[in-house]
Amino acid sequence: MSSTSLRWALLGASDIAATRMIPAFRAAGHEVVVVQSGSSEWAAEYARTHGIGAWTTSVDEAVARADVDAVYVSSKNDRHRAQVEASAAAGRHVLAEKPLALSLADAEAMVAACERAGVVMATNHHLPASPVHRTVKRLVAEGEVGEVRAIHVSHAVGLPDHLRSWRIDDPVGGGVVLDVFVHDMAAVAAVIGGRALRVSSMSRTASQVPDSVMSVVEWEGEVIIETHDAYDNFHLPTYFEVLGTTGAIRATGCMTGDPVGDVLIYRGLEATPVDVGPRDDLYLTTTEAFARAVAGDGAPIVTGHDGVRSLAAALAALESLTTGCGQDVARA
């Protein structure tokens, strides 16, 4: 159980809140006291289904409740800024879904609002909390592969029908860049630090909502990142590979919200399995780190500033798809 037991308001009656965050909050000993949705019918049904004592259609009402300490924002991406700013103004700590916003200016304004209010803000990028990714980070930090030269990421997955909706229908907020590539950027930053400098991307289709994108990213420290993000891969496992001067790491089946995947370290083409330790739930790990940060013990696993940087890289990728040219990543 976390050292700080938080009482949560949910802004957005979403699938991820239902399947991931509500169970994580409760496993950490926290309480979900209210859910907000723009639809009164859906809010009431959601509250009944998930055992939440109160519901509302008003953001201001939800965040102003005296029994709310923190807010989880998982509404549509274009609503995040106003909801985070309202939460900060009410003095509530904020865990916001990725992408933080649809523009860098909005994302930066969200972080600034939380800083002015003196509340903790985190971005719900789940991969840095994965036991597999944390093992890869540890191996890199311990010098097991020498100097990192390149990272390969395959985050091509099969998108189930119940998750399609805005991901394939919304030409502004949908598509794999804002939904999946943005996670890749957070995962790389968590493992090796630094930030993306320039992105060149190509889509498999000319669709307004690209469902398959390959990107090459120039990273700080002269590291090259190669990514493949897609919704149409139902056959091959995902992977995250680190190539270094003295060795390499291959983590398979690990670009997921579940605590699964395997890690191999390679030297001279010979592979050695690496124990990743306890298979703790990613969202519980995120929740517990957030609660510790609220108590003044360290920082969230992925901060608001981290979320701004992952968004900046994603926006450069989208611009690259539009122009057909590589795009510099805005300094964030």
What are its keywords?
332 residues; 10 helices
If you had to describe this structure to a student in words, what would you say it looks like?
The protein is an alpha/beta fold. α1 (15-27) crosses α9 (282-294) and α6 packs across α8 (176-192). The chain has ten helices and 15 strands. It has a nine-stranded mixed beta sheet, covered by helices on one side. The relative contact order is 0.16.
Secondary structure: helix percent: 25-40%
Strand order of the largest sheet: 14-13-12-11-7-10-9-8-15
Whole-Å distance between the termini? 34 Å
How many helices in DSSP terms? 10
- The best one-word shape is globular
Low-confidence stretches: none
Brief write-up:
This protein has helices spanning 15-27, 40-49, 59-64, 80-89, 104-117, 131-141, 165-169, 176-192, 282-294, 304-323; strands at residues 7-11, 31-36, 54-56, 70-73, 93-96, 121-123, 148-156, 196-203, 212-219, 223-230, 239-244, 248-252, 262-267, 270-274, 327-328. By secondary structure, the protein is an alpha/beta fold.
